Amino acid sequence: MSSKLIAPSVLAADFANLQRDIDMVNKSEADWFHIDIMDGVFVPNISFGMPVLQAIAKHAKKTIDVHLMIVDPDRYIKTFANLGSNILTVHYEACTHLHRTLQAIKDEGMKAGVALNPHTNISLLEDTINDIDLVCLMSVNPGFGGQSFIENTYNKVKELKELIVKKGASTLIEIDGGVTNKNAKALVEAGADVLVAGSYVFKSTNQFETIKDLRAIANS
Ligand code: DX5
Ligand code: ZN
Questions:
Q1: Relative to the alpha carbon of 11, which ligand is closest?
Q2: pLDDT tens per residue across span 104-128
Q3: 67 close to ligand 1 (CB < 6 Angstrom)
Q4: Res. 206 pLDDT band, cuts 50 70 90
Q5: pLDDT given at position 202
Q6: Catalytic residue chosen out of the listed positions 21, 39, 65, 176
Q7: Average pLDDT of the chain?
Q8: How far apart, in whole angstroms, are the C-alpha atoms of residue 216 and residue 220?
Q9: Measuring CA to CA, which residue among 118, 123, 115, 158 is closest to residue 139?
Q10: What pLDDT, on the 0 to 100 scale, is given for residue 91?
Q11: Is 72 left (phi over 0), alpha (psi -120 to 50) or beta?
């Protein structure tokens, strides 16, 4: 069984000390950097854009997992590839031609991810699951860090895992929103592979230890 991965969400970092927080993640047991890009249209919030990602990528020594919460993501696929994204995740709800978008992401040498809002049914991925490297299940409504976890996520993880097995796909399941030491184990047991954690990591007093503990719980 492969290791379960921890992806701290930089959205909750201290932007006035970004290099310090990036270095902390570099030195920690975290596996990926999770980067939330919000446009103020697809979600009711604006996070940060290309210059900030460029600064992060300059210091990040781990996989850069970019979560685009933007409309018409096709416009920026090349840009995010050039900025150093390793995984590029688009929202199902923001893509009219999802199959084409996934292809375009892979053509730029990145892994292709699809995020589902809490209301979006797993069955909608029946015809694309074999083309998707990662499904990001939103366990909060996207737009803000620090929200509480939606319990129905467990059902969705199980359904998604069944779909992946049924189709013989190798898609990873990522959970995004409200992840803590309280739900990590149950999420992994339901089938999750990657846990994103923002506030839980960055608002804790010992971030380094929090990552270590979360990773240990996920792999216990
Ligand atoms: C929410 C973002 C998440 C967020 C998670 O729209 O996609 O990645 O940063 O933050 P927490 O872990 O605080 O819920
Ligand atoms: Zn995210």
A1: 1
A2: 999 999 999 999 999 999 999 999 9
A3: yes
A4: very high
A5: 98
A6: 176
A7: 98
A8: 6
A9: 118
A10: 99
A11: left
In this model, does residue 1 exceed pLDDT 80? Answer: no
| Residue 200 to residue 179: CA distance in whole angstroms | 7
Q: Which residue has the tokens 């007093």?
A: 205
**Would you state the pLDDT for residue 124?**
98
Tokens 């939103």, located at residue? 138
Residues in the 5 Å CB sphere of ion ligand 2: 36, 67, 176
Label residue 12 left, alpha or beta by phi (over 0 means left) and psi (-120 to 50 means alpha). alpha
In the predicted structure, residue 62 carries a pLDDT above the cut 80: yes
Cβ atoms of 70 and 99 within 8 Å: the answer is: no
Residue with tokens 């416009």: 75
**Tokens standing for residue 23:** 């270095």
Widest distance between CA atoms in the chain: 46
